[in-house]
Design a protein that fits this description.
The complex is a heterodimer of chains A (205) and B (657). By secondary structure, chain A is mostly helical. Chain A has helices spanning 4-11, 25-51, 61-64, 67-92, 96-126, 135-166, 175-201. Chain B has a two-stranded antiparallel ribbon. Classes of the chains: A mainly alpha (205), B mainly alpha (657).
Chain lengths: 205, 657
């Protein structure tokens, strides 16, 4: 029999292979959470699709879309997935400086996307598309707003990781933490691909 | 949320000893109220869920009695129409979200780790968070009686446009939407937590198809919760934005479609029916084999029919909407799917009967409740199938026939089953038996009261008495059955009071009785292999599982002629519960703090946005403090005794979260 102290130390290591599935508890939980998020965005996207032509005589979201601008900010968001992968890879190899830099770049790209969304909302509002204008506008702002909140929360997580790396509390041993944040980040990107395609690119009627 | 808690989960003892950002150390386990407030023990959390659910059962029950008193005679003025609307709405909300779901969560929390041979759930702190958030949501919803100008008055399904500001100008619906959003976070977190627990933390040899049927039913329930809650979340957000920010989701005059709410609500609402009923099916599937001394008939059929229910439950929602003009093709499709979903349910009923067939039946209180559950659910299920016939449903919609149907399913199927579960697992949870003689009186009074209350509603519905009316005129033939129903409801109240009396009286009597021992019922699943009440560390040694009903086959051998021979006494094979030095997750106050912040955000959205700032900062701050608190207090809850090293055995992820 080994000693209890040894057992206690082993406990806090959370060896991945301790679980029945071989996937760590936290990662499995994140996958499940993302699965539930599909239903959340599914509901919001369906709502928009139902309402996208219901203008109540006023301007519709499809009338004010600026496709080139949104394409650019979509590209920025997609690139942030690439930098996220680079961050994870760097942390996994123990190159913490590089990992730190990529984490920062990823959150900055996310920040640029959010900035673009704020600009977009403002210009739409100036063109007469308020939140309460018609069912289509309410559905549009709610859907893209929910996505924006998700991106913002992702930025908070990325910045938390960044600070943890700076303080030396996050090392290559915790690379999985970065991976799990990455899962969330990629999911939010994928949702945006759906939104951009279905909402922006497919014309109404 | 799972993310935020991880970053500081550092390996190794040295790193956790320093206190990052000066946050407090994890509180030590102990006794008294602090211990309960900071507990992350799945058993304590389960008990708290159960107690709180029983409290809200009384609240919802009082609301039910008010309804029945109002309807006892024609033209009564006990409640005004406005108050009546609020009472029946809050009765439904309370019974569904604040009683039966948390009661099922109590069983899930307490039993899942024990039945799969784990020391706790995957994320003990998230488990505490689920409970505290749920209770803050529950208190929040009910606080609208005091500060919101009355309860919600739109029915528990809260159809638009009745739920809009125009038709419901008080804050009741705001409290409904925000409260259910808060409670929804709790259920979602809990569902993810329990799914991970079942998938990841089973004892060696406990493959998925060796798990008790109860665990399977609870697992399917958690999947349904995880996927149904986001849909109601969307619906509630849209409703809330309509009411608070004047968005246009449900205003028909602006071109919105009120049917959107109905679709979103029932895409959640029909899986919700199975969320309510499956835990009770699980209880029945444990109780009937135990008291028939036979293994469950058709184990894999039981499991697969539950999974089938889990999938098909997503394809029947529009049968709640046959009269809302969804078109003949939709009606036909949903009629068919509704008929089909009766098949896996029928399989279950057949299997329970076949389990009892030829068994050595012992009609304990738990068994009586289980058998009654099967019978009453069958009645409710059959009246449910009549609704799949759209022409008949058109006739019955919004009449008391519907009320009769879903009470037979939810009360007869859900509540009676969980009551049986309470009698069955009581000795395991509290270490004393509920008196059987009083239990049987409880059972019969409850069964008779239940049938007196809801049976006549079939007749009333077919006579054309409509739901949700605050009174009725004399001379329509409604008087007699309404009075019977009211008498029945007070009979149920007597049964509930008698149950509470039984709890306290049995507890007092237990002092003079021998303790129940680990396995008073000669049962089949793992939780009976450990002492009663369950020791804090659950298992001295994580067992290695050889088969379904592993614990039974440690006590008995069965030969080819199905002859059962005892091979060991319970005392010989049960664990002693005397292990020391088992590593357990440390308690934490942060889940409670997070949960306090959320209702503040809710009040803020309704009354004053500054409160949102306070609540938001409290919640966010507590989440960060949570992430930064040492993953385990190195000195907490495990000594340095060398006699046990069991927590190596594949299930020692307990410290996480």
């Amino acid at each position: 029999m080994s000693t209890a102290t040894a057992a206690a130390t082993a406990d806090t290591h959370h060896d991945v292979h301790d679980t029945n599935t071989g996937i760590s508890n936290t990662k499995l939980a994140m996958w499940l959470f993302l699965a539930t998020e599909c239903l959340l965005f599914g509901g919001l996207i369906s709502t928009y699709l139902l309402y996208k032509t219901r203008g109540n005589g006023a301007v519709l979201p499809t009338d004010v879309f600026d496709i080139p601008f949104t394409s650019a900010s979509s590209f920025v968001l997609l690139m942030s997935s690439l930098t996220m992968v680079l961050a994870l890879s760097a942390v996994g190899r123990g190159e913490m400086d590089r990992g730190k830099a990529w984490l920062l770049v990823t959150s900055m790209l996310g920040g640029i996307f959010i900035g673009g969304q704020v600009y977009e909302f403002t210009s739409f509002y100036r063109e007469g598309l308020g939140y309460t204008t018609n069912p289509a506008s309410s559905a549009f702002y709610t859907l893209t707003g929910f996505h924006g909140v998700h991106v913002s929360l992702g930025i908070v997580m990325l910045m938390s990781l960044f600070v943890a790396v700076v303080q030396g509390k996050l090392t290559s041993k915790n690379a999985e933490t970065v991976e799990i944040v990455g899962l969330y980040w990629h999911f939010v990107d994928i949702v945006w691909i759906f939104i951009f395609t279905v909402i922006y690119l497919i014309p109404a009627e | 949320m799972a993310i935020i808690e991880q970053p500081l989960a550092l390996g190794g003892g040295a790193a956790v000893a320093e206190r990052p950002l000066g946050v407090m150390t994890r509180p030590q386990g102990g006794n008294g109220w602090r211990d309960w407030l900071s507990s992350v023990d799945h058993k304590k959390i389960g008990i708290m869920y159960g107690v709180a659910a029983m409290f809200f059962f009384l609240v919802g029950g009082i609301e039910a009695l008010l309804i029945r008193t109002q309807l006892a005679f024609p033209e009564q003025g006990l409640l005004s129409a406005q108050v009546y609307n609020q009472i029946y709405t809050m009765h439904g909300v309370t019974m569904v979200f604040l009683f039966i779901m948390p009661l099922a969560a109590a069983f899930a929390n307490y039993l899942i780790p024990l039945q799969i041979g784990a020391r706790d759930v995957a994320f003990p702190r998230l488990n505490a968070l689920s409970f505290w958030i749920w209770i803050s949501g529950a208190v929040f919803v009910n606080s609208s009686w005091i500060v919101g100008g009355g309860g919600a008055d739109c029915g528990w399904f809260c159809y638009s446009p009745n739920s809009g500001v125009t038709f419901s100008p008080t804050h009741g619906v705001d409290f409904y939407a925000l409260g259910l959003l808060i409670a929804g976070i709790a259920s979602l977190v809990s569902a993810i937590n329990l799914i991970v627990t079942v998938l990841n933390m089973r004892a060696p040899g406990m493959s998925l198809f060796r798990m008790p049927v109860m665990t399977w039913m609870l697992l399917v329930t958690q999947f349904l919760l995880a996927f149904a809650l986001p849909v109601i979340t969307v619906a509630l957000f849209l409703l809330l934005f309509d009411r608070l920010f004047d968005s246009q989701f449900f205003d028909p005059q602006a071109g919105a479609d009120p049917l959107l709410w109905q679709h979103l609500f029932w895409i959640f609402g029909h899986p919700e029916v199975y969320i309510i009923i499956l835990p009770s099916f699980g209880v029945v599937s444990e109780v009937i084999p135990t008291f028939s001394r036979k293994p469950i008939f058709g184990y894999s059929f039981m499991v697969f029919s539950a999974i089938a229910i889990g999938f098909m439950g997503w394809g029947v929602w529009a049968h709640h909407m046959f009269v809302s003009g969804i078109g003949p093709i939709s009606v036909a499709a949903f009629s068919m799917s509704t008929m089909f979903i009766a098949v896996p349910t029928g399989v279950k009923i057949l299997n329970w009967l076949a389990t009892m067939w030829g068994g050595k039946l012992r009609f304990t209180t738990a068994m009586l409740f289980a058998v009654a559950t099967v019978a009453m659910f069958t009645i409710g299920g059959l009246s449910g199938v009549t609704h799949s016939l759209a022409p008949a449903d058109t006739q019955q919609t919004d009449t008391y026939y519907i009320v009769a149907h879903f009470h037979y399913v939810i009360f007869g199927g859900g509540v009676l089953g969980l009551m049986g579960g309470a009698y069955f697992w009581w000795p395991k949870i509290f270490g004393y038996m509920l008196n059987e003689r009083r239990g049987k009186i409880h059972f019969w009074v409850m069964l008779i009261g239940f049938n007196l209350t809801f049976g006549p509603m079939h007749v009333l519905g077919l006579q054309g008495m409509s739901r949700r009316i605050d009174t009725y005129s004399a001379g329509y033939g409604f008087e007699f059955w309404n009075l019977v129903s009211t008498i029945g409801s007070f009979t149920i109240a007597v049964a509930v009071a008698w149950f509470l009396y039984n709890v306290f009286k049995s507890r007092r009597e237990a002092v003079d009785l021998p303790p129940p021992g680990p396995d008073p019922w000669d049962a089949r699943s793992l939780e009976w292999s450990i002492p009663s009440p369950t020791p804090e560390h659950n298992f001295d040694e994580i067992p290695t599982i050889q088969s379904v009903d592993d614990w039974w086959y440690r006590k008995y051998s069965v030969d080819d002629d199905h002859q059962v021979t005892a091979i060991a006494t319970i005392e010989e094979v049960a664990q002693k519960g005397d292990a020391v030095g088992v590593h357990l997750p440390a308690p934490s106050f942060w889940p409670l703090v997070v949960a306090v912040g959320l209702p503040l955000i809710g009040y803020g959205l309704i009354f004053n946005l500054w409160l949102c700032v306070v609540g938001g900062m409290l919640t966010a701050g507590a989440l960060f403090a949570w992430a930064l608190e040492p993953v385990d207090d190195p000195d907490a809850a495990h000594g340095h005794d060398d006699s046990h090293s069991d927590d190596h055995d594949g299930n020692d992820n307990n410290g996480e979260a």
